[in-house]
Write a structure and sequence with these properties.
With about 325 residues, this protein is an alpha/beta fold. The chain has helices at about 1-30, 50-60, 80-90, 100-110, 150-165, 180-195, 210-220, 230-235, 240-245, 255-260, 270-285, 310-315, 320-325, and strands spanning about 35-40, 70-75, 95-100, 115-120, 140-145, 170-175, 200-205, 225-230, 250-255, 265-270, 305-310, 330. It starts with a helix and ends with a strand.
Length: about 325
């Protein structure tokens, strides 16, 4: 009896030890911290480049909901909503916050000086006061610029003129909120226009109402074409702008592929899908210990010309073969 009792005691001890080890293992698994990132948009949930960001995260081994969590916050076009949304993300103690506009970036910087921030597709980081220098940002923000430097607007206008040689008056919808970058773009277009014998009519766009008023004016004037720059308002209203341009049968040059996919005629500019892919790589570096202060702000490296032949047919325009041959993508 004693011997059997001894064996039973040993078995009990072993079972207890195994159960204890399982509990410890389970508790340890529960305590494993899943990285959490925040994404702050000034627009709505319809974000055209997020798929590229998610795909790159998957390539790097991150699966949303399994080993990484993403908190999305959308201002729905209301800048006044940004401070509260930024505070929400900071309150969640996320590991990194991504922003997509200068205004959102400034708001997040005012909210936290400790959480790493990655600016995605912003303009001139230095001119905007976001970083000390491109090579050494120096603070808790770094990222990827969409500023192609001098010459981009001139190239857009040149392509527009090459596509429609007869144009003489071009309406330019520009984003004044972009600060010096926007002012520089306008001056660059005016300079290029002189060389082509083109008159530029600029329209400041701060709201959707400004778009409608600009097109109402365009209807009354002898305007031959449109040049649409990027910005939160124009991007959120890309389909509406493309539709208005088509109804007036006006050729239009845009700055990103999104406008052409939404019915615009043609776009030449930075490849934003590439920028979002690279943003995912920045997140990976930060999660592995890199500091934003030491991560250089990257300049864009890929550009693309996209043409919508369906829209060209709709407005009665034939794209010259030499322009069509240079297109990186043609929508038929």
């Amino acid at each position: 009896m004693t011997r059997l009792g001894g064996k039973g005691s040993v078995v009990s001890v072993v079972l207890c030890a195994m159960l204890f080890a399982l509990c410890i293992s389970s508790e340890a698994q529960q305590q494993v911290k899943i990285p959490r990132i925040g994404f702050l948009f000034i627009g709505s949930k319809d974000q055209p480049h997020l798929d590229s960001f998610h795909q790159r995260l998957r390539d790097l081994g991150y699966v949303e909901g399994k080993n990484i969590a993403i908190e999305y916050r959308y201002a729905e076009g209301k800048p006044d909503a940004l401070p509260a949304l930024a505070a929400e993300l900071a309150g969640l103690n996320v590991d990194v916050i991504l922003t997509t506009t200068l205004r959102a970036s400034r708001v997040v910087l005012q909210t936290t000086r400790t959480i790493p921030i990655v600016g995605v597709g912003l303009g001139d980081f230095v001119d905007a006061g976001l970083v000390k220098s491109l090579a050494r940002p120096g603070g808790n923000l770094t990222g990827l610029s969409n500023s192609a430097g001098p010459g981009m607007r001139g190239k857009q206008l040149a392509l527009l003129k090459e596509t429609v040689p007869s144009i003489s008056v071009v309406a330019m919808l520009w984003n004044i909120d972009a600060g010096q970058l926007a002012t520089g773009a306008l001056e660059e277009v005016k300079t290029a226009a002189k060389a082509f014998g083109i008159q530029i009519r600029p329209y400041e766009i701060k709201s959707a109402g400004d778009i409608e008023r600009a097109f109402d004016d365009v209807k009354k004037l002898r305007i031959n074409a449109l040049l649409i720059t990027g910005g939160p308002v124009t991007t959120r209203n890309s389909t509406r702008i493309a539709d208005l341009a088509s109804k007036l049968r006006l050729p239009a040059m845009y700055n990103t592929r999104q406008f052409v996919e939404d019915g615009g005629l043609m776009a030449y500019g930075v490849n934003f899908e590439d920028i979002y892919r690279r943003a995912a790589s920045y997140v990976d570096k930060i999660l592995k210990g890199a500091k934003p202060a030491d991560l250089p702000v990257e300049q864009p490296t890929k550009f693309e010309l996209v043409i919508n032949l369906k829209t060209a047919k709709q407005i009665g325009l034939t794209i010259p073969p030499n322009v069509l041959a240079r297109a990186d993508r043609v929508i038929k």
